[in-house]
Amino acid sequence: MSILVYIEQREGTLRPVSLEALGEATRLAASLGGPVVAVYCGATDANLASLGEAGADQVLVAKHAAFAHYDGAGYAAAVAAAARATEASVVLLAASSIGKDLAPRVAALLGVGLASDCTALDTTGGKLVARRPIMAGKLFEKLAFPLKPAMATLRPKAFAPAAPAAGKSASTSALAFEWDASAPRAVVTGVTGETGGKADLTEAEIIVSGGRGMKGPENFALIEKLAEALGATVGASRAVVDAGWRPHGDQVGQTGKTVSPKLYVAVGISGAIQHLAGMSSSRCIVAINKDPEAPIFKLADYGLVGDLFEVVPALTEAVKKVR
Q: What's the predicted TM-score (pTM) here?
C-alpha cells in the first residue's frame, strides 16, 4: 500500500503545487502508513533529487517521447499504472489546470470516485476523508471513499509543503506502462504563455484584484503599483475580464481561477457569488469599496470603506515605507 502523488511539470520544471501535494501525503502517511510515491511524466530526464527532501520515498518516472507536452490519455495511463503497481490506497493530484483534466481520466481508468478541489484532508478509521467547498463556497461537504484508491485533487495554496528533510533521498526507477501513442485523438504542438511576470494566480502568496469599481482599464495602473509594492500578482473580477480590461488569465472566480493566497486584496469588487467562490479560502481578505453594504465586507477580515482612487495610492505609499 502506498500514497501516490502526481508530480506536475512544465517544460521540465517541477510545479510548487506538487510539493504541496507531497507535503500532505507525508502527513497522511503518518496515520495511513505506507511509503509516499511520486510519479513523474516527461519526455526527458529531469532533476528529481529534490523530491526526496520534499517527502517522497520513491519516484517512478514515466518517460515517453510523446510526453514533451501534456497528453491527457498518455499521462492518465501512466498514473493509473503507477497506482496499480504500488497498490496505492490514496492518489493525490493538484487541482491545477492539468490536474483538473488528468484526475478524472485516472479515476475512470481505475474505476473509482474522485473528490475535486479539496481544501482539507483527514483520516478516520484508517481511511481518507476529504473536505471541499460546494455551492459557490457557501457550504462544505465531507466525503468518504468506499473504493480504493481514494482519489482527490488539492486546491493550490490550501496545503503546505513538508519541512525539507535535508539529506533525504528517494529511490528512482522507470515505470512500466502500456499506452498506444500511434493514433492520438489530439496532439499538443506547442504551448505559449506570458513570461517574466509574477507568480501564477493559483500559486501566488499575495493577490491584489480589481473590479468594476476601477471604472476603466487605464486605472489598473493603481492596482499594478500596489501589487508591485506588496510583491503580489494582479487579479480581476469577471466583469472586468468580460469588459476586456484584463486578460482572462487574470480572472478570479467560479469561471476563472480558484485561489488561496495568504493575502487577498479586493479593490472595487462588490463580492458577487461567482467571485467569492474563487477566493473565499484566502487566509486573509482585505476589501476596499465605497459601498458599506457591499457583500465582500461580509467575508473580509479587514474592510475599508472609501474612494479607492484615494485609498489605493495612500496604501501603496504606506507599504513602500514599511517594506
A: 0.85
